[in-house]
Amino acid sequence: MIDRSTVDRILDAVRIEEVVSDFVTLKKHGPNYVGLCPFHPDKNPSMSVSSTKGIFKCFSCGKAGNAVGFVMEHEHMTYPEALRYLAAKYHIEIKEKEESPEEIAHRMKYDSLLAVSEYAQKYYQDILWNNPNGRAIGLSYFHERQFTDETIRKFGLGYAANRPFTLAGDARGKGYKAEYLVDSGLCIQRDNGELADRFYDRVMFPIYSVSGRVIAFGGRTLRNDKTIAKYVNSPQTEIYDKSRSLYGLFQAKGAIAKADKCILVEGYADVISMHQSGICNVVASSGTSLTVEQIRLIKRFTNNITVIYDGDEPGIKAALRGTDLILEEGLNVKVVLLPPEDDPDSFAKAHSCDEVLDYIAQQECDFVTFKSDVLAKRMGTDPIAKARLINDIIKTISVIPDSILRSVYVETVAERFSQNPDNIFQKIAEMRGKKLEQDRNQRQRTEVATEVPPPPEDEYLPADELPPVVDEGPVSADDYAITNMYLAVQERELVYYLLKFGSSIMHFEDTIDGPAQEPVRVDDYIRDNLGYDEIVMDNRLYREMYDDYFAFTAGLDVSGVERQERIVRHFTTHPVQQIVNQAIDYLTDDYPVTVKAFLESLEPEENKLAYLVPKSVTLYKSRITEQRCLNLAKMINRAENEGDSGKVKELIRELNMLNQVKLFFAKELNRL
Predict the structure, then answer these.
(1) What is the value of pTM for the model shown?
(2) Residue 25 near residue 4, CB atoms below 8 Å
């Protein structure tokens, strides 16, 4: 818990060019520095580092951030870990935020659970290597699985003795408390108060957090007794949430970032054998269905996932389940099916590293091809089954956030199944509209019941999101998509003016209608104009940035340049990386002008704010009105189909009023 004043001292002391140059060779280039980007294969220096703005940006791969963000990305650290790294570099003493007694108790318990879990891992590992039974049973089993000693040590594998009280007795003798042994899931307390081991007579697979702490275990029996569970896993605890954990991620995260791809398999042995073969960017969902939280964990290191599951029926079903979730989170997904007799474990052992990589490269396919090939075999020539297959694929496309990627897949499906692309686009628009409406209704119900927590970082909607009201009728899906795209463009522009010029004063000129209005600050003008009409931004990312801007500036007691500098720092050091990326996009020029004479001939943007900002606000209101007119046209059509003439007249009156508003905005824009 680093207090705010310490964070500010770290940020004040940091010089971004010094931090980046610890990892990258930088050369002076005008006011900035340039170097090879470490986040993608870079032959020509494409990363720019601005010492004055305290930010870096790669104009090739798009990675951007401040010094903290660079360390997080390069070293795969969390935000607090990166702050501590920089504090050590600049010899700044970390002052912890004062904690309440409840917070202290929770932290101490959390640390104690980690300590007892790490003790258990060492205990099981020691039995494996140094106990006669451990070597004869556990180590022999791993060797039979063709795991080398180096691999066994890399993953911290172990063996739990065949008596159910050994860990409990040893741990209590070393001073570990019974409550922590129970709460960590290592032991079970019987009715008579006696502690018994949860894991015994099993080979042990420790599960690590992203930072390398032991948080849980999976234990596999070596007996053939069908009455004994093959695997026993740690229960849900304060340090372990199986839906938020991936087996092997700690060992794989560096390789995932380097390859810019994560290979997802099912089991512990699959991961270990792939790593041993030399393919280290591999993780497993550890026997659970893939979750959104696990996908977001992968997203910290790459946007590309290749799913490799068994070629049997359960493997195919698991692959089908996972693709929709991965696509909905905005990641790219490919699927590889192994021969029916193989799993990743056996396949990696039977082939060399190059052979496995070649197989993946040749066999991995996008979800359209995968679903088409797999499901087409089942449908035969049945036209109803074919329609069901097409609808199933369209439903998967509809969850993809990126509109361009959706369009690419629509063309693929249209060509593969001889369908009209317009019909597919219309169907997708309907599906997305219904999904957005369902989500909105759910949020409203939740808000009534309880206070809604802040959304997770990765749930921001993209700039081209479709509007909520889309149904069958004369207004095409393309009309909605275009209108909403314009809305997002205007919302992006308004947030741009806030972050770059929010503290600037606009000075207006006299007009033929009368004297100039009073000078006003840019952010006051935008807030007052949107607030008067009770306008709430539709795009989630821009809405969050807009609300955050005014929440932050409400407490600022400075003005002018200093005020704007504080705003810039706030957004370039924001804990939500998407907000940082967007802020840096606003503050950097993708195509910096280097010809001085041409640069001097351009009128500074700040001199034109009194024209640009009002025009942007007016255009935004105009776009909102256009979208409402489209929605009303849909509602009129629906009411006509239902024969509700009274509602039709009411809606037409409302549409006529909105058309007058549209005309007013059109005249205003012509005057600006």
Answers:
(1) 0.58
(2) no
